[in-house]
Amino acid sequence: MIRFASFGKAFGTHVAVTGLDLxxxxxxxxxxxxxxxxxxxxxxxxxxxxxLPSSGQVLVDxxxxxxxxxxxxxxxxxxxxxxxxxxxxxxxVEFYRKLRGAPAGRDREVLRFASLNGASERFxxxxxxxxxQRLGLAVAALPDSPVLLLDEPTAALDxxxxxxxxxxxxxxxxxxxxxxxxxxxxxxxxxxxDRFAVLVGGRLAAVLSSTELASxxxxxxxxxxxxxxRPENLLEALRPLSPAATWSGDELILPGPASGRPALIDAxxxxxxxxxxxxxxxGRLDALYSELVGGKE
Length: 297
Ligand SMILES: Nc1ncnc2c1ncn2[C@@H]1O[C@H](COP(=O)(O)OP(=O)(O)O)[C@@H](O)[C@H]1O
Ligand SMILES: [Mg+2]
What we know:
This protein is an alpha/beta fold. The protein has helices spanning 40-47, 68-72, 89-100, 106-113, 129-140, 159-174, 210-219, 234-238, 261-270, 285-292, and strands spanning 2-11, 14-24, 29-33, 55-60, 63-64, 74-77, 147-150, 178-183, 195-200, 203-209, 222-227, 246-248, 251-255, 275-281. Strands 6-7-8-3-9-10 form a six-stranded mixed β-sheet, sandwiched between helices. The protein has a four-stranded antiparallel β-sheet with strand order 2-1-4-5. Strands 12-13-11-14 form a four-stranded antiparallel β-sheet, with helices on one face.
């Protein structure tokens, strides 16, 4: 269990996070979402005990995160991972395995899981960015700690790395572990998280379930059509289905969720128009961020 209680952090005069109250229950997976600079890394570093709160508290299983005892129960993947370039992947993993007291066979297991088996004898200095990130995931997967903290785990991952990341989180979820990870974009993370905590400008703007997040984004979708003609009263006919229906030049703009689009298309055709082209956009996360803090798109 991770608990942020009125957590605040300032760097000098710069306030990074203010008054954060958030509890990640045991066995829960929570994604911390937010634009760059919104305070996600600051929260994770505080949970990992690497920085001290300026105000409030961060507790891991009831213990202040800064105490070494709290750190024993967690595994942390930093946003920027770096390993000594003159060591091989295997040597890096062995070093951390011994540090964390994980069993001997675990080295090979995590390297295989991170698809680095073939490269494990090579120097880290020869690794690509994606491989270094995968090595970071392998290291994070070493201990069987009850709490997993992952900062932007998908940012530099190639498809193979993404699969390893999904596998790691899904395995830890099945084992009943607590997972907190950050992301500044969706696409990779929706299916993994039970809840989404949205940070904007260092404040918690919303906590949404995955269904709530999906529907908030879907509501912001837009269907755009080009038609062969403009039947009279077309907008009036469409407004019950898409209240904000409007023309933009020769394009018909129909805001609304994806689920409403088949009916809109049927209604356009029923009005006697042929569809020349069709595009659809889904809601964007940045638009949701600004909506959550009361801004304009
Ligand atoms: N060590 C630091 N010194 C000064 N400012 C910092 C430091 N770490 C983070 N910040 C600032 O705090 C804010 C939040 O940063 P961060 O937690 O890294 O955001 P995120 O991970 O969401 O991109 C940013 O404005 C950042 O510039
Ligand atoms: Mg960050």
